[in-house]
Model the fold of this input.
Amino acid sequence: MTTKVNSNSRKRVILSLLLFFSPIFLASIEDYYLYKVNPGPSNYGNTGILETPNARFMEEGSMRFNFSASFPNEYTGLTASPFKWLEATYRYSEIKNQLYGPSAYSGNQSFKDKGFDIKFLLKNESYYFPGIAIGLRDVAGTGLFSSEYIVSSKSVGFLDITAGIGWGKLGSDDNISNPFKSIRESFSSREAETGLGGEFNYKDWFSGKAALFGGIEYYLKRHGLRFFAEYDPSRPDLNKDNPFKVKTKINLGVNYSLSDSLNIGFGYERGNQFRVFFSLTGIYSEDTITKPSAKNVVRLSQEQKAKSKEDEGLFFRSLNKSLQDESIYIQAANYKDESVDVAVASTRFSSHPRLAGRSARIASALANDQVQEINIHTMNGDLEVTTFSLNRNEFDQATSYNGSSSEILNKSKLTSSSNTPLIENAEFIPTINYPSINWNMSPSLKHQIGGPEGFYLGQLFWKTDINIKFRRNVTLYSSFGINIYDTFNDLINYSSSELPHVRSDIQFYLAQGKNNLQRLQLEYLSSPAKDLFLRLDLGYFEEMFGGVGGELLYRPFNSRSAIGLSLHKVKQRGFKQRFSFRDYSNTTGHLTFYYDFPSNISGQLMLGEYLAGDKGATVDLSRRFNSGFLLGIFATKTNVPKEIFGEGSFDKGFYFSIPTQLFYSDFRTGNISFGLHPLTKDGGAILNQQHSLFGILADTNKNSALRDWSDLLD
Done:
């Protein structure tokens, strides 16, 4: 009897261990949990524990906002994952027990610091081996939090175990000899100075003191909880400028998932301070909300088709009505014996293949049986950008589920004749009464982030946009702002820049221009030759500058590259942003090279003269996902010395754009866009152009059409 009980006990223990360590069992049971419990951000924003990183990453195409508060350090971060092997973080830190500067400069404001972190995945986790990552903290920053690390993480059942080695701030504990000293003696020492930031002190990377760190995380996924403990080697008690007491190097914490995207938690650090934090994560790489299919179009009978061929006006009216039902607007059309040509535009579809596919369905349903080819000419604004010449038989077979988009592509052509658009010589052109007026009114936000007066100063205002189209290609754009509420009176940080104050007087524009004329711009668009586009404009281009100028863009349809030239004579506007100008004026322009790399990566190189008269170059890299979500970074270096440029040493920043249709159950063409310069400086300042040609035409070459070709049948 005893033997049987012991045997049963052993079986229960073995079964429990198998369930605990079995990834197959975990994967199946997790499907029934209310929310996913994923790795969270460290205090600094990148995926980690508290003060230490781990080798975990967000999903590709994700963005995460995190806030982490304790004393004396408070962090606000924005982290993006343009690739599954890369995380990049922009961080804003507040040191509460230090002043920003002399009281005459910043009053009683606490010290602020901005930093940029990157983390790369070196090796994916396997069944037997951990995942390995390498990272740099506070890259090209002031050096206040500068660190480098190599870290590994291994999942064992509900546990995630992390171990790594750090340098810089993470190496302060000096509990291990720097392993790189054996490679080169220069790894033995490290400059400990902080500065203006903006410089890549790569000679210091992985140099000086080194320390081991580690942590363990326990996932109680059934209840949405993640518990963690870490060994923190950062030793803030050794900080010469701002030391604070450390009772223990063990930090503890817990995280709770309120939803798949929102997490909150608290920690206990150094044995004497509590920390509270939360994070908000979004995955934008795919559109997860189902959109409506193409509307069913009743095909005409043979008698009706014959009648519509005899009376082409009937065909064009039916085509126009059916297209409008899909929020597609006919611009021009031809109805020939063996082909139909239709030029279309839409404010609903951002994908040109989808726009062409919806239009071709309708044209095919209405055309007679002799028509063999349907040519859809898609337009963006007043410019014709792509012609989809579709084999009608293949297209109809595919829409009847007897074919595919690939089979259509094999018998179709993609071309562009931008200088001879269909609207210039079509049989049918709808009558448009000019001038046509469109307007929009909505509340809007304006903000100043990361200044010495506070992390966020903002304004809520009522924005009114009025656009008057005098004829095709000629439009007057205007935008007015009326203040509702703002905190811009707190701005007291006046510029001492030695350069012309083309951007650094922003506090005067914000404080005095609360009710303003943001924009009043007359614009002309044209395509004087095949694949060559022209834009001319004059007026008040933006809140700080007005003038006259234009740009040319050569975008070969069959190429991944493009080249643009812009030139504007500008004058600085008055602080109230009405109709007056200040004394400063300049001619600014750039020669820009564009290229689409594999993996949906785009690059830009701008060369020319900037608003303050400085000359140099801007490099811009971005990645676009299938959903339309865009992540990008840029950096500008000009002939302005770093001592004159000031904090940051050169202009840099990041931006993102999220299609609004990701949040709705229908297609839309708008975007939620945000760009951030860590500092508002005069060096490397670029004129803001609302409708740059590349912005209009970047996604209209053949490569873009092929990328989205599967949308044709959507």
Remarks:
- The mean pLDDT is 90.
